[in-house]
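Hey, I'm writing a tutorial for new members on how sequence and structure tokens pair up, and I'd like a real worked example in the thread rather than a made-up one. If someone can provide the structure for the chain below, I'll link this post from the tutorial.
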Amino acid sequence: TKGDLTIVHSLDLVWPAAGVASMALGGSPFNISDEQVRTLEDLARQRLADALKQLHIQGQAFVTRGPAEIALIETAAHLKADLLVVGTVGRTGLRRLLLGSVAGTVVTEAPCSVLMVRRHPG
């Protein structure tokens, strides 16, 4: 059967170290305006749409704000997705412990089946 394709990209503009320190002092984690964030969202949305067009694939592109795992899980639930395909960088060891695993969270929390795709080096 034919299905719909939706590409989701999340702009997570809070980096743990810089964001926490800055917010603890009452500031913003970045010196970036809402207008600049909207511009980033528009650019990301356009790049996704261009990629779909270049590959001759029909689909829609969503750009959200916040952590990728939350964006993916919430979008999959909202769209009542049958399958969620997620790219993974395969962090291990200390980096995974400190930064967490988007893939791990999505696999355990997604409301649908999940297919993980790891990028091959090269």
